[in-house]
Write a structure and sequence with these properties.
This protein has 251 residues and is of the alpha/beta class. The chain folds into two domains: 74 residues, Beta-grasp domain (Ubiquitin-like (UB roll), Roll); 152 residues, no CATH class. Helix content is 27%, strand content 20%. The protein contains eight helices and twelve strands. A five-stranded mixed beta sheet has the order 2-1-5-3-4, with helices on one face. A four-stranded parallel beta sheet has the order 7-6-8-9, with helices on both faces. The chain has a three-stranded antiparallel beta sheet with strand order 10-11-12. Helix 2 crosses helix 5 and helix 5 packs across helix 8. The radius of gyration is 22 Å and the shape is elongated. It starts with a strand and ends with a helix. The relative contact order is 0.11.
């Protein structure tokens, strides 16, 4: 006989549920032996989004098997709880914010690099590589594919909700509280390398004539050898940085 379980998702986790199931408890039938992780993910909520699960007033780990008549509440990361003792299911924050992004988030990767954040992204990276890189390099996996975040080996991840690039940037910085860590124009937008100062004499032969005439300050990526200077594109990128900063101060 299947078990009947009452499940309630708290606050932002409701965004991940079908519209008809948001904001209210639901009764679900599950097979004997179903864990709370399996149950939450079967409803579309990856385990990387969950901080605490409470069953019948007691916090449990992901491996806890539900029983008939259980009442289960699922709390998102950073949600304040009046529950003690609490089993925190979200892993401790990483010492520094390193990201790996799926193939669909290339524009977000460039924007985060612009702001100074270390982002691995390739347009041909596979799901297996994404998961392996996240684990091996202790990187936060950013994706719009919730199935990828359901992989048990992925500990640090976030499902990006927004589709507009600028709103995606604000969303990620808000989620990981990174507005104070913005340090723009220090990374290569193409390959993620840390830019180094280079003299005009070293790169002058590679510059357009107008750039040779009008600019003296240059930096170069040591990995892909791309050269950067404050050309006509700089004002547009600087405006993006300021827009993001203003979004942080408006919180």
């Amino acid at each position: 006989m299947p078990h009947r379980v009452e499940v309630r998702f708290i606050a932002g986790l409701n965004d991940l549920l079908p519209p008809g199931r948001r904001g209210r408890p639901m009764t679900i039938e599950v097979a004997v032996g179903t864990t709370v992780k399996d149950l939450a993910e079967s409803l579309g909520v990856p385990h990387t989004e969950i901080a605490v699960i409470v069953v019948n007033g007691e916090s449990v780990d992901f491996g806890h098997q539900v029983r008939d008549g259980d009442r289960m509440s699922v709390y998102p990361v950073f949600e304040a709880l009046d529950v003690s003792p609490v089993v925190r299911l979200d892993p401790p924050p990483l010492r520094e914010p390193l990201f790996v992004l799926d193939v669909h988030l290339g524009r977000l990767a460039r924007s985060l690099r612009l702001l100074g954040f270390d982002c691995v992204w390739r347009n041909d990276i596979t799901d297996d590589e994404l998961a392996a890189t996240s684990v091996a390099e202790q990187r936060i996996l950013l994706t719009r594919d919730r199935g990828l975040l359901k992989r048990a080996r992925v500990a640090h991840g976030y499902l990006v909700r927004e589709t507009d690039r600028r709103r995606q940037v604000t969303e990620v910085l808000r989620r990981f509280d990174l507005f104070g860590a913005i340090s723009p124009f220090g990374r290569c937008l193409e390959c993620n390398g840390v830019l180094e100062p280079v003299s005009k004499e070293e790169v002058e032969h590679r510059l357009p004539l107008r750039t040779q005439r009008d600019y003296d300050d240059f930096r170069r990526c040591p990995h892909c050898d791309r050269i950067y200077w404050k050309g006509s594109h700089y004002d547009r990128l600087a405006a993006l940085v300021e827009d993001v900063r203003r979004a942080g101060t408006a919180l």
